[in-house]
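My hope is that you will study the protein record below before we discuss the fold together.
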Amino acid sequence: MPTTRSSSSSRLVRASRGGTNPGASKVKRESSVTFDISTSESSASMKRKRVKRELDVNGEHPTKQVGMVPDIEDFRYEKTKAPVSSSKAAPSLVVAPENWEALLAGIKSMRLSGQAPVDTKGCEKAGSLLPPKERRFAVLISTMMSSQTKDEVTHAAVERLAENGLLDPDAIVRTDEAMLANLIKPVGFYQRKAQFIKEASKICLERFGGDIPDSLNELLALRGVGPKMAHLVMSIAWKNTQGICVDTHVHRISNRLGWVFREGTKQKTTTPEQTRMSLEKWLPKDEWEPINPLLVGFGQTICTPLRPKCDICGINNLCPSAFKESSSPNPKQKKTRSPKNTGDD
């Protein structure tokens, strides 16, 4: 064996020196382990130079072992793309909750009566008889007053403003803040909301010619306007649904139905914004606008915050939370209600 190694090495040396030797390429293909190591070292050297040039261009100097090519995720321009293709995020983009269509159809059936407060006194009804521009402003003001306030109270405040000619940005700017607060009382946080309404009215006059902002970012720039309000105003006032409006009812019911989870977990969402992002990953876009009044009305009449009326709910045979928060004395017996009674609720 030593003789063979020496012979092979000699052939290799002669091949490398003899540039005109026609058998040189053949000798290289049949070379021993010594030649393979040389090739690996040469390749590693080329890779080190290439990586160095790339890192110099990007201004990065990761502390990696010499000769090792970094993963593509190590480069700064790729890091923002990593979450999109991550194994945790991918399923939530396509997998819808089990039985969601049957649950949604059951809720729609129960809401056919249109007897919930939101159906007659929700923000959608604000300024319904006004011209488009004036109505948009009324919707914005109604939405700003709606947080932490029942629909009936918000609707009554809008009516008082209309009676005093204050569904107009110019009129509101010229009105004393204390008077404005007194008119919208008893909406939640009425004094703070009066301040925000005056500020928003001034911005509408100065920047939008008396109209309201027509983009989410500009709406969110108004003090007192959060994501829920901005999405609602875009849908109602501009007929431009860019996201789901999630209030306390939509947030609560979506969790009870098992429709939403925190990113990368099977745990319930803890904020309306988490609920919105989770819903938007699987709910068809043609359901984004109607889902708010649908679930709000359902939450006002049947799936209430305290002691939900599971015994008269038409989807209690499908809902994963049925009777778990109810004071019904015979939950097991009542949970077996026949689905044929769904339309009667």
Q: What stands out?
A: Residues 136 and 237 are 5 Å apart (CA to CA). Confidence is low (pLDDT under 50) at residues 1-42, 51-92, 328-345. DSSP finds 18 helices and no strands in the chain. The two ends are 92 Å apart (CA to CA).
